[in-house]
Design goal:
Strand order of the largest sheet: 11-10-9-8-4-5-3-12-13
Distance between the termini: 65 Å
Order of helices and strands: EEEHEEEEHEHEEEEE
CATH class: Alpha Beta
Strand content: 25-35%
CATH architecture: 3-Layer(aba) Sandwich
Number of domains: 1
Structural class: alpha+beta
Number of helices: 3
Largest sheet: 9 strands, mixed
Radius of gyration: 19 Å
Bound molecules: zinc ion
CATH superfamily: Cytidine Deaminase, domain 2
Length: about 200
């Protein structure tokens, strides 16, 4: 077995991944941690999302996330490689909605900027009221982002907290972390509310 060497080619770098397979008992990891959905965001996609979020401190802003569904020996994970700003999105008070105009814009920009990527989720801001999914947010997730791999990111622009929600066992569930480049980001967790539609401004 090849030992991992440090950069100077000196001492072997001890690494748990080098444990021989025949010394390991085949058994699923005992808690749900191993089943957590892994989401990786490229630094460029993250910057584009955050830059859009920073354009207003008062109004909710939204956009979609694009990328690729991937798998490795630990299972399915999501690679987010781009973000498209949701220009023209209506805001009912503090609630974001996706109008036909929003979708037309998003599809146009995605085809131009990310022709090889698919829509893998959405993001929106909560300026000062915490990380959770409102009833309207849940409605959006259930109706527009209901493929198993699709996620919702919430950016709290006042407290700088972030949250990410994915589909687990039929429920929209807060994830504990995602990765931006090689940096692990611990997430604020909140509830997903019961689905409602906005009743108007
Ligand atoms: Zn919201």
């Amino acid at each position: 077995m090849a030992k991992r060497k440090d950069d100077k080619g000196g001492k072997p770098r001890i690494d748990y991944r080098d444990t021989p397979k025949d010394k390991a008992v085949s058994r699923p990891f005992p808690t749900a941690v191993s089943r957590q959905y892994r989401v990786h965001i490229s630094p460029g996609a993250y910057k584009r999302m955050k830059d859009h979020a920073a354009t207003s401190a008062d109004v909710e802003l939204c956009g979609v996330l694009v990328g690729t569904v991937c798998r490795d020996d630990q299972g399915i994970y999501l690679s987010v490689t781009g973000a498209v700003e949701g220009e023209g999105a209506n805001t009912y008070g503090t609630q974001v909605t996706f109008t036909q105009q929003t979708w037309d814009h998003i599809h146009r920009v995605r085809e131009r900027d990310y022709p090889d990527a698919q829509i893998v989720g959405w993001f929106h801001t909560h300026p000062g009221f915490g990380v959770f999914l409102s009833g309207m947010d849940t409605f959006i997730q259930e109706n527009f982002f209901n493929a198993p791999h699709q996620i919702a990111i919430v950016l709290e622009t006042k407290t700088k907290e972030e949250g990410c929600f994915g589909w687990v066992d039929g429920k929209i569930t807060a994830l504990q972390r995602y990765w931006v480049g090689d940096r692990e980001v611990r997430l604020a967790t909140g509830e997903a509310g019961h689905s409602t539609t906005a009743s108007g401004p």
